[in-house]
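During the second year of the project, the team shifted from modelling isolated chains to modelling whole assemblies. The rationale, set out in the original proposal, was that interfaces cannot be judged from single-chain predictions alone. As a representative example for this report, we include one of the complexes processed in the last quarter. Its constituent sequences, exactly as entered into the pipeline, are reproduced here:
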Amino acid sequence: MDDPRPDDVDFGCPVPLGNHANLQMAHGGGGRLMQRLIEEMFLPAFADDGSQEKTVPHDSAVLAVGGARLAFTTDSFVVSPLFFPGGDIGELAVYGTVNDLAMAGAKPVALSAGFILEEGLPMETLRRVVASMRKAAREVGVRIVTGDTKVVDRGKGDGIYINTAGVGVVPEGIDVSPNQVACGDAILLSGDLGRHAIAIMSVREGLAFEGALQSDCASLAGLVEAMLAAGSDIHCLRDLTRGGLASALNEIAHHARVGIELHEAAIAVAEPVAGACELLGLDPLYAANEGRLVAFVPVEAVDRVLQIMRGHPAAPQPAVIGTVTAEHVGLVELRGLLGGGRVVDLLSGEQMPRIC
Amino acid sequence: MKYIDEYRDPHAARRLAQAIAETTTRPWNIMEVCGGQTHAIIRFGLDEMLPREITLIHGPGCPVCVTPIEIIDKAVIIASRPDVIFCSFGDMLRVPGSQKDLFTVKSEGGDVRVVYSPMDAVALARKHPRQQVVFFAIGFETTAPANAMAVAQAARLGIENFSVLMSHVLVPPAICAVLDSPLNRVQAFLAAGHVCTITGTSEYGPIAEQYRVPIVVTGFEPLDVLGGVLKCVKQLEAGRCEVENEYARSVRPEGNKPALRQMKEVFRRVPRKWRGIGEIADSGLALQQRYADYDADRRFGVEQITAEEPAECIAGEVLQGHKRPYECPAFGTRCVPERPLGAPMISAEGACAAYYRYRRRATGQN
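Output from the structure prediction step:
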């Protein structure tokens, strides 16, 4: 096409929070509205204490405490239904926080568990969730050392909400953060996309898809430990949760001030996930995962890191899916199957199924 | 994935693009009617595979985009009522009305629910007999049969707390409206494959004949679109103007007869306003008199509501192919998906959204 396109368009136009008098679901959807809420509401309130450098948002904060470096993070879990194919809210609450610690290169040490429970919840349901948390924590080798319980009136909660916070120790010499991302870095993805989103959807919306698709819900701590233990040079890690691969990479491109090039052909999507996404008009690049990570690795370390990932059960399908570039800073571009390029943007909120 | 992967084959796509280039001897403007096709074109970069002489013009076939602002306002009023459960396809929730969208209604306490089928709304009505359950019945001929079935089923089961807010539109009158415009530059059409799966192709023959335009019924995968363009170009170069079917794996000339019967039983043709375009004769569907009790317009007394669209939004010109999204001064600045001036910026099938999502470049070189 030879149409003139504007080159002076200001795409960075901020959306004032004042546009929304009330909170909307999209403010928690992992997309642009949530990013704006964090940047315009939370960061100015909490990150501006004069003592810190400009905060680069990461999965965990890393704090220097008495000569050691501690990673500290928190996450809340509001999944419905509580039990889904391949996992449950208890496992998710342990793995989610453990994974956030691992993404800072930390070895998880301890978790807290805060429960917000709805009046009338069957005790047996709670028992199953707690047993599942215990099992997950044992598997990862992390202790749940403190907690809190609140009960709310019937109708004011979805049965169980769980908040977990976690601390971990960052081993000496490890510095894994968006700050370290460099032009030329290869981007490695640990497995196929979208299993958690479609597994949840299949039970939540009563959509019946062929084949029993399971969530990818898993701990990534062991995988990260193995990747780092080999002395590999890893610049940045990010687990893909709500908002999917596209949102994670957009955040990193934005904060690390780099461009990202992806190759569609290298990105694995399992057939049932691809089919469900086609049917519903969803893009697997934005679909939620709970057991996948991307690693930013200098070119010379790629083979070595890939080899470690290939031998690990938490990385079922590791692949190089793209590179970091100095061009189109802040944007993620995808080279498609037919050779055309397109921008993979941050969504406003959650994806919506199409009409027809 | 069967029926998908083979229609995205890069080698076959390049062969088709080559054939189009070899057939083309002069400039042609082809409109893809359906927003689903627009997104496939932009997402896969199909326009970049075509020779310079071929210009694809994006058409009005996005049901969310063409829903007039006053119907959004009606939806907002109805959904804000405490006795109402308002059900809609997810896409409609972000479309701005004069004051607010349905997401805002939801955040203010309205019971607004996303459903995947109108039958889900009927089921909700059975489950909540004390609430009024309203389904936002929008779309082209594609969604009309299921929506008709929902009304017929509610009537059969005697579910009185169910109603539909109707905003159904039809493709052939919109094609005629595009062709009748003095600004029209479209010389051939890729007709919407899913619409024709329901309706068949019989309505398109008279249009092709009367306006002397080729119309090729086309699917939504890269090879479908390129195949449709090739057929159009062959006709244009040869001076033919016929209806051809490039989507034969889905479309039969006679359409889906049970679906058409269901539509006829429940709906009748009426004039309908299109957002940004204005009223088009016989371009909409309303409930037949015997189903008038299920009309939410009537039930909630919102028939008289009218509204003006924001003057700054050029959605009408974009939807008729007169302008491209990036030719709008507000594109990407005062109009972005989080804060749209018009529906084409938010709908999954909207042309402005397609350009914003896929063609945004920091360097602006594309």
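Chain B has 16 helices and eleven strands. The first helix of chain B runs from residue 10 to 23.
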